[in-house]
Every structure is written in C-alpha cells, then in structure tokens.
Amino acid sequence: xxxxxxLVDKRLVNSVTEYVKNYMANYDGxxxxxxxxxxxxxxxxxxxxxxxxxxxxxxxxxxxxxxxDVGDKKYLKPGEDSSSLVYDxxxxxxxxxxxxxxxxxxxxxxxxxxxxxxxxxxxDLIKSHPELAVVQDADRLDAIGSIGIGRLFTxxxxxxxxxxDDSIQHFHDKLLKIQSMxxxxxxxxxxxxxxxxxxxxxxxxxxxxxxxxxxxxxxSV
Length: 221
Known about the structure:
Elements: H1 10-23, H2 33-48, H3 58-67, H4 85-92, H5 97-109, H6 112-117, H7 119-128, H8 131-141, H9 145-160, H10 164-173, H11 185-213
Helix pairs in contact: 1-3, 2-3, 2-8, 3-5, 3-8, 4-5, 8-11
C-alpha cells in the first residue's frame, strides 16, 4: 500500500494547491483546475491500489499530480522556464531541494509526445522515479473515456480551431493508443473501460454522420 496521508506535508500541499488554482485560472476548460483535481484523485486511487514500492513517495505523487501542467509548453507564459518552474516554486514554498528536484523531473516526464519521441527515456525515469508511472497514468486516464471526449472537443475549439472531423481523427492518432502505454495494472484496467467507451462513441458518430450524409452506415469491426 502507499505511504499514509500522515507523511504528506499538508501545509506544502495546500500552498501548492492555491498556486495551481491561480496559475490555471485562465486555462481553457480542457486543462483547468478541474482537470488537476481529477488527475489528483486518479493518482491517489492508483497509488493506493498498486503494489507497494518502497521508493514510491505519496507526497511526491500528490505534488506531481497537482503540478504536472505547470509549465506545459501549450500554455507557457512569457519569461517562464518550463525546466525549472516547478522546482523554483517548491523551493519558494519551503520544500527541500531533493523533493523539489524529484517533482520537477516527474512533471517534465509526464508528456505523451515526449514519450513517443523517446520511450526508453521514460522507462529509465520510472525506474528511478516510480511516482511517474502513477501520475502519468492518472493524467492519461483523464484524456480518454467520456471526460476525454469532452476535453478533446473543448481543446480543439479553444486552442487549435480544428474541425470536428479533425478531432475525430485525433482519436485514432492518439487517444485509442493510450491504453497500450499505461504503466500500472490499475491504470490498464481503467484505460480498457474508458477506451471501450470511446470506441462506442466513434461507432455512434459514424452512424449519425452516415445517416446525415445519406451514405450507408459503416460496418462495425
């Protein structure tokens, strides 16, 4: 089982939570503080229901889940350095350097696109930072399933102005691949359920699009 909540510095967590609320206040609905709350809840669930790993620290899981989108390049503000933003924040809030470095490393390792470019690096990071597997799975679970569908269209409209058809293509380009990239057993089980929901949604989408265009509905595979 995971380390007990008593080992989590609640003062530090509360300070980080308030910072993240303010930092993300202007983010669009796909990456707002509600996303952080969901990822935090998922990370705690995965951590609590995964085999005990002595090196895995509950406090690192919590802080990394809260801060994983701080410094995200999609939303980076002028003058901010994504490579040190989390570290500098934690130090300013009274964290020790070891904890701040570890959380910063994990936050930089969560990215899907970074893993696609260099999957071996992520595997190496998880060996030395087992909390990364928990936070990464939690973040990716929030990108799929019914909530993931909502976030996909929200982000597409708010940030990229991509068409709905382009958003549908994104299911095939990324979202349907996430299940195979999960790191924890708990994450894999949850991802399987959420992937099935997306596949059902795509089936409905195909049927309705075909009906509207007067074409035969696509045959389910």
